[in-house]
Amino acid sequence: MADMTCQLLVIGAGPGGYVAAIRAGQLGVDTVIVDDRKPGGTCLNIGCIPSKALIHAADEYFLLREAAGGRAIPGVTAGAPALDWPRVVDWKDGIVNRLNNGVTGLLKRARVKLVAGRARFLDGKTVEVDGETGNQRITAESVVIATGSVPVELPMLPFGGKVISSEEALSLDAPPARLALVGGGYIGVELGTAFAKAGSAVTIVEATDRILPLYDADLVRPVAARLETLGVEILTGAKAKGLAGEDRDLLVEAVDGSERRIGADIVLVTVGRRPLTEGWGREELVLDMDGAFVRVDEQCRTAMRGVYAIGDLVGEPMLAHKAMAQGEMVAEIVAGERRAFDKRAIPAVCFTDPEIVSVGLSPEAAKAQGIAVKLGSFPFQANGRAMTLHRDDGFVRVVARADDHLVLGIQAVGAGVAELAAAFSLALEMGACLEDVAGTVHAHPTQGEAFQEAAMRALGHALHV
Ligand code: FAD
Ligand code: NAD
């Protein structure tokens, strides 16, 4: 393979890397991107997209089961539904494939060269790519490292056999009859809900005192209630100790020290992800670290001139849209523009049932920063659209500065509220005050009216509660 030179080399074609490459290409920067996996990274291939496809398929099946059992909207009934899981997985793979091709096409259109292989630094400007057709050296003026993250493995539950990570969980032949999940965070609760709806008997083992500890208790309560109605068993304050006995049951230690065995066909370990800081020759570079992450400044510059790092590799939140925003920014910096990462809001959405959205500061976070706040919350029980959707659990909550009413944070929990993340983020990014949100005409009947009413309530004049 002939050696190459370029202005920008991007290592890793996940949402961070491919966005950086496309934007750089659009700006006329001669760009090469390297990955040994199809473009799209964790998110597109084994993360966001495939998990949301399976979550939606399980939702549809569950609704049919509810209708068959006479639990749907009165008057809506159905015969017993069937679930052909391998076909669902094929459908999911088809979506991933379409998006892989889409990203490949976008890179091509931006004149980015896509090199298949694993990259390894020789020095700060040169990498060697170990590809299928041999080794190739690429020398670049600037490099963006976007190698992402991998699942955390527990020493007492190494991956293999019935112990799997989220990657394998997305391509199982069938929903396991008994599924034990270790870790009740994002992936555990999202996939646990989906498998419960698909018919698995699910147990979630969570080390802290509640599931989804990242979100405040009010937001998580409707999700925990729904899991209970789905028959999911939740063990909090519990630690997995390994597999035990002939049947290789999951051994769990409760908070009081007592032990319990959980029979499981599959043990899915979802205790977090760690940045991928090895395997690409970090030892050849002089990078500062920030704990397990590569340290970067507000322009995603590492300690080495011309070497940038973005995405899951550089810290929380480990979310695809943060990686993309950093990728876009770095490309513009490399192209000579003046940019810094100064986002006011990075939304977080949990695709549970009901969904959770959080943007900006929670009431607790504002309090911890010593900010006096006004709060307004509006329940979906008083929202006409929620009633017509046959789901009125949850609420929207607005957190604003007490003195000038600047909106600091917005949270919601409710069926389908993920789509409200756009309105919430825009309000924060534009520096909206309570009066702006309350004074906007929101379409009727929509769940968005609950956002307006929450702002009105914070101002002391809600209309519908
Ligand atoms: P990655 O997407 O991890 O991409 C890194 C790429 O680098 C990979 O393709 C890898 O092959 C490549 N690479 C690594 N080393 C090398 C090397 N030496 N040479 C060449 N290439 C290399 N986030 C959300 O925002 N919303 C969600 O709904 C969501 N759902 C998720 C569901 C699951 C099951 C999982 C696991 C994650 C989910 N995430 C979600 C998180 C999201 O996937 C990550 O935040 C995102 O993919 C990070 O992007 P990245 O570009 O930093 O890295
Ligand atoms: P997570 O950090 O969301 O949750 C891990 C959970 O495991 C935590 O609740 C933690 O207390 C628990 N835990 C840790 N060690 C444990 C142990 N030994 N026994 C029992 N419980 C233990 O991690 P995740 O669910 O693996 O997801 C990884 C990352 O992927 C997330 O942090 C997020 O950044 C991203 N993600 C995002 C989405 C989304 O945006 N909707 C969806 C999935 C994943």
TrEMBL record:
Keyword Transmembrane helix: no
UniProt domain Pyridine nucleotide-disulphide oxidoreductase dimerisation: residue ranges: 346-455
Catalyses which reaction(s): N(6)-[(R)-dihydrolipoyl]-L-lysyl-[protein] + NAD(+) = N(6)-[(R)-lipoyl]-L-lysyl-[protein] + NADH + H(+)
Cofactor(s) needed by this chain: FAD
Gene Ontology biological process: 2-oxoglutarate metabolic process
Residue span(s) of domain FAD/NAD(P)-binding: 7-327
Protein's name in the database: Dihydrolipoyl dehydrogenase
Organism: Aurantimonas endophytica
